[in-house]
Amino acid sequence: MMRHRRLARSFRGLGRGRPGPEPAAAAAGAPAQLRQVEDVLRETLAEVLYMKPGDVGVNTPFVDLGMDSVMGVEWLPMIQQRLGVSLGATKTYEYPTIRDLAGYVLAQMPAAVAPSSSPAGEPDPVDRWLQAIYEGRADPAEAQQWLATLETEETSGRTP
Hints:
By secondary structure, this protein is mostly helical.
């Protein structure tokens, strides 16, 4: 484990001085999309680390969260599946936080593929509910009642 952390520290600065757009600058024009990419990265990394997404800080280095190279290799296919961007194994060392990596990933995504928000800028109500259950803020036993409320609000033209 110590060897992995030393290796990670040695890679930490790689790629930052290369020519080309800085990830944060490339994504600066799309804060909602950047936030969505960050959310996907947090969710998938939390799954790999057996943590709750809320416990994964966007500015916390991956190695400080306990990620090692094996976990990184496990995480990359999840990122590709959810976001459609294939990353090399060194990208988690070149962009060592969720915020850094999200900017890079967003810059690599074609505009047509980049995550989009709903018309009101809010996530889908079902997605919000499922996220609340996952984070422990909602009780799955209340799902029937919530769905009935959602259906009533949708038929009346309101959204929850």
